[in-house]
């Protein structure tokens, strides 16, 4: 039995319960740079805490399969541990610290493969089935073999059917499938072979030469690719020139496991793990004569360490025109269903507002858009139009807001060229990074809390994840990129809004705070006192109107 046996694992899913324990099953590296030693550092090291004391952290537990004698130059010997010792490690942990994620790496012989496959097949019915990640290690980065006996047949016939996320590099793909990853078409061919063996998703690690030769950006970028067979996700970062990188694969798979165990959606954990390794490679140094290990620096927080993300390879090469900028701090941002509500709140001093009149035919929507634009001009306010971007451009609106499901159908280049501002919704690290590449005017981060205003495929992010993403966007200037205005949205009432003042977010969007209160004018007064009206039009240095903690 494997996790979610009758469903497709989707990239936006949170795949684990709130039990952030990761079992790392693999070999001991006496040099300390890879194997179980790297697993522990990556799993435990990927941790963060916000100003309110909210923490995200995982704990590594280990089942050692193999003891190796190695240094930075070579592996001189190894010993596979007996099955009864593996069994005792397994049972002790199972009785006290069951995992959210099992991360598998080095298995030294077919007997170990068969034993592990049997344990996964007979997982106790009373415990939630953990997510299983397999990093198919057989060769050390020094070039030495790490298995006592060939294990490939046992892996294909018995283990792969239990794997939820496989993380092979190009060498490992070739060994298992016989397919060399020379083009993007080879990725699909290789996945088809893996799927025949029962693997649910594959994350192809692109840190090897010769990968994706038909993709121009791959000439000087490392591209990681994930698929479940129905959709693809890509992360790309500039190639780094360093001889140090011992334990790169271990650190990547283990930081991925840690992120998943901490409740991050699969695509978000993918982007975070990519950044974790990138920052570690930049800081890697050697202590011996050979390549040094990846540095373990904790939660990645610098914009320059995060990848460009995409749902299609063509997006990675695209050059985008920046949309017209808006002020950095947008302040209170009501989202209202009618022009009447729009005018009522503008009269209260609201300076940023969105008209969300959903599912109207164009002939009914156009007069509403036209009225909204005129009201924005009358009150010198930032009025955004939800969805109807063609009408917004036609009537020269201040801005338009698009959701993730709408942006693919919109002409973003036309919006950018028009001078109309563009706001985009995002629901996690991966979408945030992808949306930022489109160079919009602002990004909305959501949904922060549970909401009843719309059905959401993603789960609420909470204050910590909002803080992480807003801070990351605020760090863009350290990478030579302009800061991106941010908006928090989703399930935010007045009490919850007070938790957000410690974050770097520059605006709070509210949907029901006014339309479901008996005194909207009084509510507007309270909200404006807490959040502020944002910067004045054309001025991002207006400290008096700055929202949130910057008041």
Topology overview:
Elements: E1 21-28, H1 35-45, E2 48-49, E3 55-56, E4 59-70, E5 75-80, H2 83-96, E6 101-104, H3 110-121, E7 131-134, H4 152-159, E8 165-166, H5 170-177, H6 184-196, E9 201-204, E10 221-227, E11 232-238, H7 248-261, H8 266-282, E12 308-310, H9 313-317, E13 331-336, H10 339-346, E14 352-355, H11 362-378, E15 382-386, H12 389-394, E16 399-402, H13 404-407, H14 412-418, E17 421-426, H15 429-437, E18 442-445, H16 462-474, E19 486-488, H17 494-497, E20 507-510, H18 520-531
Structure description:
The chain has 551 residues and is an alpha/beta fold. The protein folds into two domains: 21-317, UDP-N-acetylmuramoyl-L-alanine:D-glutamate ligase, CATH 3.40.1190.20; 331-550, TIM Barrel, CATH 3.20.20. The chain has 18 helices and 20 strands. The strands form three sheets. Strands 5-4-1-6-7-8-9-10-11-12 form a ten-stranded mixed β-sheet, sandwiched between helices. The chain has an eight-stranded parallel β-sheet with strand order 19-18-17-16-15-14-13-20. Strands 2-3 form a two-stranded antiparallel ribbon. The longest helix is centred in the middle third of the chain and has 17 residues, at 266-282. Residues 338-513 form the Thiamine phosphate synthase/TenI domain.
């Amino acid at each position: 039995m494997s996790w979610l046996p009758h469903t497709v694992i989707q990239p936006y899913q949170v795949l684990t319960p709130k039990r952030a324990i990761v079992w790392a099953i693999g070999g001991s590296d006496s040099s300390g740079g890879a194997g179980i030693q790297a697993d522990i550092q990556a799993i435990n090291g990927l941790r963060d805490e916000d100003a309110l004391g909210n923490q995200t952290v995982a704990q590594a537990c280990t089942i050692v399969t193999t003891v190796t004698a190695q240094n930075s130059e070579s592996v001189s010997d190894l010993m596979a541990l007996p099955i009864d010792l593996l069994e005792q490690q397994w049972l002790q942990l199972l009785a006290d610290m069951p995992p959210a994620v099992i991360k598998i790496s080095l298995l030294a012989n077919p007997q170990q493969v068969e034993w592990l496959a049997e344990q996964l097949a007979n997982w106790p019915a009373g415990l939630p089935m953990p997510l299983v990640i397999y990093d198919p290690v057989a060769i050390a980065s020094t070039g030495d073999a790490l298995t006592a006996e060939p294990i490939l047949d046992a892996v294909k016939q018995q283990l792969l059917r239990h794997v939820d996320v496989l993380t092979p590099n190009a060498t490992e793909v070739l060994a298992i499938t016989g397919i060399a990853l020379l083009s993007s078409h080879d990725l699909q061919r290789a996945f088809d072979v893996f799927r025949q063996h029962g693997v649910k998703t594959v994350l192809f690690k692109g840190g090897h030469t010769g990968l994706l030769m038909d993709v121009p950006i791959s000439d000087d970028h490392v591209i990681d690719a994930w698929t479940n067979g129905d959709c693809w996700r890509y992360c790309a970062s500039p190639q780094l020139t360093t001889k140090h990188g011992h334990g790169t694969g271990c650190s990547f798979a283990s930081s991925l496991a840690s992120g998943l165990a901490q409740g991050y959606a699969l695509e978000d954990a993918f982007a975070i793990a990519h950044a974790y390794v990138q920052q570690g490679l930049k800081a890697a140094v050697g202590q011996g004569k050979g390549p040094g290990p990846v540095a373990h620096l904790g939660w990645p927080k610098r914009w320059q360490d995060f990848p460009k993300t995409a749902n299609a390879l063509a997006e990675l090469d695209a050059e985008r025109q920046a949309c017209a900028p808006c002020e950095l701090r947008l302040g209170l941002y009501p989202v209202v269903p009618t022009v009447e509500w729009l005018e009522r709140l503008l009269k209260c001093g609201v300076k940023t507002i969105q008209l969300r009149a959903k599912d109207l035919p164009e002939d009914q929507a156009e007069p509403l858009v036209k009225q909204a634009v005129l009201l924005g001009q009358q009150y010198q306010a930032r009025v955004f139009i939800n969805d109807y971007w063609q009408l917004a451009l036609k009537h020269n609106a201040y801005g338009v807001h698009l959701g993730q499901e709408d942006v693919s159908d919109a002409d973003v280049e036309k919006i950018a060229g028009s001078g109309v501002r563009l706001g985009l919704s995002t629901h996690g690290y991966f979408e945030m990074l992808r949306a930022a590449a489109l160079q919009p005017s602002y990004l909305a981060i959501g949904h922060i809390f549970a909401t009843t205003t719309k059905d959401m495929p993603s789960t609420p992010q909470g204050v910590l994840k909002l803080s992480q993403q807003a801070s990351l966007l605020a760090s863009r200037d350290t990478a030579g990129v302009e800061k991106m205005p941010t908006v928090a949205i989703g399930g935010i009432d007045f009490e919850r809004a007070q938790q957000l003042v410690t974050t770097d977010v520059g605006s709070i969007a509210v949907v029901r705070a006014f339309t479901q209160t008996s005194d909207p004018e009084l509510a507007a007064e309270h909200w404006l006192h807490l959040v502020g009206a944002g910067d004045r039009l054309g001025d991002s240095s207006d400290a008096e109107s700055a929202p949130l903690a910057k008041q």
